[in-house]
Amino acid sequence: MRAALALAALLLAAQAAAAQTPPALFAVTGVGAGDKLNVRAAPDAKAEVVGTLAPDATGVEVVGRDAGGEWGRINIGETSGWVALSHLAAGPDPWAEGALPDGLRCFGTEPFWSIWPEDKALRYSPADGAGKVLGLTAVLEGVPRPASRALVARGKVAGITAFVSPRECSDGMSDRVFGLGIDAVLEDGGAPRLLTGCCSIAP
Q: Which band of pLDDT confidence, cut at 50, 70 and 90, is reported for residue 20?
């Protein structure tokens, strides 16, 4: 009876995990206190183990799923791997009702830059020079893509219009894979510049 209940709980966790739109945050479940959850190089129980998660790990960002919906792709260290969704419990939907995930941060390389929302502002930090804090004037939800957002921010002499959307994205500096990409137009007094990069919602 206990085994049947445990199996049912794992199946329910897997269904909830599969229902979330990547990227989303999860917590490890169904792993014993003295055990660890394996992260594998491919969505296969026989694939090489590239890392592990603690049995009480939270804030695990799943950036994609395999074709069968049984495995979730995550980043661990400087690489990415796969974990069984049956051992992940979904957290609150970070994209509910047009919201922006609390941990949303977008970035690019060559040159390095980052953009992240904070309160009612959008912060932009370039590789060199002073950063900018712009008033976030609009957040538009993508329809019918629930994890797509358009962010419009304006200051006295600068503005950013950014489009965040679900897609496989590489930072070009590691073997990590992200579930969100960003295209942003930066206007700061000179010619407009197009910034492209990746985003994460990991805490």
A: low
Please write the tens of the pLDDT for every residue from 69-119: 999 999 999 999 999 999 999 999 888 877 889 899 999 988 899 999 998
Q: Which two tokens stand for residue 86?
A: 């049956």
Cis ω before 146 (30° cut-off from 0): no
- CA–CA–CA angle 20, 26, 31 (5° rounding): 125
- If phi > 0 it is left, if psi is from -120 to 50 it is alpha, else beta; for residue 118 that is beta
Buried b (16+ CB within 10 A) or exposed e, 88-102: bbbeebbbeeeebbe
Question: Per-residue pLDDT tens for 139-149?
Answer: 998 876 678 99
What CA–CA distance (Å, rounded) separates 72 from 203? 18
pTM for the whole structure: 0.85
Whole-number Å distance between alpha carbons of 161 and 154: 9
Q: How many residues does the chain have?
A: 203
Q: What is the pLDDT of residue 90?
A: 94
Dist CA 132 CA 155 (whole Å): 9
The type of residue at 176 is R
| CA dist., res. 181 & res. 200, Å (int) | 9
Cα dist. 105→20, 87, 122, 132, 164 in Å? 20, 26, 10, 15, 10
Q: What single-letter DSSP state applies at residue 32?
A: -
